[in-house]
From TrEMBL:
<comment type="similarity">
    <text>Belongs to the ABC transporter superfamily. Ycf16 family.</text>
</comment>
<dbReference type="InterPro" id="IPR003439">
    <property type="entry name" value="ABC_transporter-like_ATP-bd"/>
</dbReference>
<dbReference type="InterPro" id="IPR027417">
    <property type="entry name" value="P-loop_NTPase"/>
</dbReference>
<dbReference type="GO" id="GO:0016887">
    <property type="term" value="F:ATP hydrolysis activity"/>
</dbReference>
<feature type="domain" description="ABC transporter">
    <location>
        <begin position="6"/>
        <end position="248"/>
    </location>
</feature>
<dbReference type="InterPro" id="IPR017871">
    <property type="entry name" value="ABC_transporter-like_CS"/>
</dbReference>
<protein>
    <submittedName>
        <fullName>Fe-S cluster assembly ATPase SufC</fullName>
    </submittedName>
</protein>
<dbReference type="GO" id="GO:0005524">
    <property type="term" value="F:ATP binding"/>
</dbReference>
<dbReference type="Pfam" id="PF00005">
    <property type="entry name" value="ABC_tran"/>
</dbReference>
<dbReference type="InterPro" id="IPR010230">
    <property type="entry name" value="FeS-cluster_ATPase_SufC"/>
</dbReference>
<keyword id="KW-0067">ATP-binding</keyword>
<keyword id="KW-0547">Nucleotide-binding</keyword>
<dbReference type="InterPro" id="IPR003593">
    <property type="entry name" value="AAA+_ATPase"/>
</dbReference>
Length: 258
């Protein structure tokens, strides 16, 4: 399997005519973990939603490609089948569809007709992943996210990630609302995915997640664009000093977007 690449070039995105992203550039390759940080209202979640094709977000300029294919020409389900995955801050509940049914359908959606995963192989993989995430086995037969606590929903997102095995995952504030024990377990599941065929974009406010998942690259977003990039040491400095030093260094005035 060749190394996948998600490329975002000069991305401009608007909501209801208001420009939110103002020229974002990113490239994420298989084997790389990238973290995007920044103050509230700088466009981080808009970036994830635009990549995955949320209809609320209008791309007015720029390109998004996955392995050279135009992502913007794909429907939402086509983006998922092509190998993109979004771990959401607030996962949806779906009544009438069990976790196991949803996961097996998602796995088979990325396989050729006639090459569907066998039931026994699927169950073995799912059970193994649930053990890593310290999830009760009965959660497989519960309706998708229905009645789940915040921590259970986040573990379930990572269960989906580990089972589906996408090319590139976007994890939007996956640490939101997790206590320290749940954070360690979720991080362990994400780290299990590390290999040259998997790239990850982690959107977070806090250094604490990056204590457990070491990024190869850290990017800071302000005013709808990436204004600074570096290694893990950049996240540590942000935790210690906040964002004011970047604003002063780059002459950025306070201004927020959505």
């Amino acid at each position: 399997m060749s190394q996948s690449t998600l490329t975002v070039k000069d991305l401009h995105v608007s909501i209801d005519g208001k420009e939110i992203l103002k020229g974002v550039n990113l490239e994420i390759k298989g084997g790389e973990f990238h973290a995007v940080m920044g103050p509230n209202g700088t466009g981080k979640s808009t970036l994830s939603s635009a990549i995955m094709g949320h209809p609320k977000y209008e791309v007015t300029q720029g390109t998004i490609t996955l392995d050279g294919e135009d992502v913007l020409e794909m429907e939402v389900d086509e983006r998922a089948r092509a190998g993109l995955f979004l771990g959401m801050q607030y996962p949806s509940e779906i009544t009438g569809v069990t976790n196991a049914e949803f996961l097996r359908s998602a796995v088979n959606a990325r396989r050729e007709e006639g090459d569907e995963i066998s039931l026994m192989k699927f169950i073995r993989q799912m059970d193994s992943n649930m053990d890593i995430l310290e999830m009760d086995q009965d959660m497989a037969q519960r309706y998708l996210n229905e009645g789940f606590s915040g921590g259970e929903k986040k573990r379930n997102e990572i269960l989906q990630l580990m089972t589906i095995k996408p090319k590139i995952a976007i994890l939007d504030e996956i640490d939101s609302g997790l206590d320290i024990d749940a954070l360690k377990v979720v991080s362990q599941g994400i780290n299990q995915m590390r290999d040259e065929n998997f790239g990850c974009l982690i959107i977070t406010h806090y250094q604490r997640l990056l204590d457990y998942i070491t990024p190869d690259h850290v990017h800071v977003m302000m005013q709808g664009r990436v204004v600074k990039s570096g290694g893990p040491e950049l996240a540590h400095r942000l935790e210690a000093e906040g964002y004011d030093w970047i604003k002063q260094e780059l002459g950025i005035e306070d201004e927020t977007v959505q």
